[in-house]
């Protein structure tokens, strides 16, 4: 955070407007997913609820997403230390892991379908498809953000400037948010099934 002086010479903390906007966006996404999970609980209590075990592929995808968050964080550290090759390599790794997560999510949906849990069937399955599908859509947005970051990494000369550091921090914050959001969602779904 930046520290600024006010008119009476006292210090106050000031958050960058882009960081503030990102946090507001993350808060609104959190509220949306909290609404989904609240609706899940209410509907589950209403009866007519199909019990099923989540396919293990969703746990694998969770591990892949965790690795992507670790690799992007390591890329950011490498960027700040001036290690250009490691920074770029880890950013590519993050993109590949993020895309792999989406492929694994699709395989998870296929596995659900194979055990008879379809989107337009029982509400229990519908909720899983909607919750994981909305998260996947947000992750696609994260991949778009990563694509822009990759273009900056490879098209611009390597420089550690405040503007580029801020852009990377915003990318990192959004990606970590998507990671923690998925951990919340998959943990919630698994706990509801136990």
Q: What does this entry look like structurally?
A:
The protein is 77% helix and 4% strand. It has five helices and two strands, in the order ββααααα.
Strand content: under 5%
Examine the coordinates and then state which fold CATH places here, giving the name of the CATH topology: Four Helix Bundle (Hemerythrin (Met), subunit A)
Strand order of the largest sheet: 1-2
Roughly how many Å apart are the termini? 42 Å
Give the CATH class.
Mainly Alpha
What would the average pLDDT be, to the nearest integer? 91
How many strands appear in the DSSP assignment? 2
Task: Tell me the major beta sheet.
Answer: 2 strands, antiparallel
> Which percent range fits the helix content?
over 70%
SS element count, helices: 5
**Model regions low in confidence, pLDDT < 50 over at least 5 residues:** 1-7
What letter string, H or E per element, gives the SSE order? EEHHHHH
Could you say what the CATH architecture is?
Answer: Up-down Bundle
What Rg do the Cα atoms give?
A: 20 Å
Number of domains: 1
Question: What is the CATH superfamily label?
Answer: Cytochrome c oxidase, subunit III, four-helix bundle
Label this structure with key terms.
Four Helix Bundle (Hemerythrin (Met), subunit A); single chain; mainly alpha; 194 residues; elongated
